[in-house]
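Prompt: For my understanding, could you write out one protein's sequence and backbone structure tokens?
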Amino acid sequence: MTDYYGIEMKKIITILFMLFISTNVNAESFFDNTIIGVSFISQSVDIEVTGPGSIGLGSDTGSGFGIYLDKYYKQKYRFNSTLSFISYDAFDITQLMVSADYLFPLNPQVSLFSGASLGAAAQKYTDSSVTDSAVGAVYGVQAGAIVFINDNLMLEAGYRLRPTSIETNIASSLGTVSTIDDLSEVYISLLLMF
């Protein structure tokens, strides 16, 4: 079974490599258009639980997806809006963020970026005995790289550091408050130009 997945991964890497070397890339065409994208997100949270007899710190990891819209300006700046949904074992997090990035082109095919973001996140417990939710502000910074594959397609990968403080009063545990302090995430995205 392991050999099968290894062979499939080699095929995917070979196809991506061929795309990188076989296309005539015009990265500037992306900077004149609006881009839509989809991303796979792996997010980790720091959780503090306070209340009668239940004080503790912990962390959890969830995964999900995001959809977003990019707009470039003067080939150096990117403005972005993102809607994402991350699922955990006991709760879900939905985020709506806006961000601004500065681009650092390395060559016509690869560009690094860094920037800042601001938005809101909603936490909703999904455990059968809990139906509570809360909303909080989220801010942070991000950095990553963009690889231009061809005139209509690019890949992006990055890291987002997003401090927050979302406090959820858990009704089934009288007086218990769950506070999320961090929404750090890594992601990989596929972006399309129209």
Remarks:
- Residues 18 and 61 are 34 Å apart (CA to CA).
